[in-house]
Structure prediction request, 177 residues.
Amino acid sequence: MSRAGKRPVTIPSGVNVELAGRTITVMGQKGALALVLPPEVSVAQSDGTITVIPRDETKRARQMWGTARSRIRNMVTGVSKGYSIGLEIQGIGYRAQVSGRKLALELGFSHSVAYPIPEGIDIKCEKPTQILVSGADRQKVGQVAAEIRRLRPPEPYKGKGIRYDGERVRRKEGKKK
Prediction:
């Protein structure tokens, strides 16, 4: 039995949920998201809550039960509050700047790196060394943040590179003379 799947998802005010066959669409002030549910689960909506129910007692149905409930909860939270991930850049001369729908990064390479900002994602640079990735889709926000970090991951000797806010980089000792 899925303990996560048993709990209903509460729908906050200002969020509309539509069920059409196996597709669930969630609309709110931050945007609209849609999800095609797996055939192993069904969804019921009543009294401002959404309940996910497995269709049978197979192992796959139990797996999809909790997964579908979590994805629906993430969609509801995303269209009402949104998700954001902060990145920080460390290194001399390393900086970021948003221009139009591109993120221009100076990361110590011989050229600047231009990262195109996908639809549904907002990127802000409050300081040249701080990047804030935000949007309604939790998976997409995490993916974009991971792709930006992958351009120059933090190295263990001087700690230079792009890291998540609050990420600790284990430092190594350098060469001995």
The chain has three helices and 13 strands. Residues 59-80 form the longest helix (22 residues).
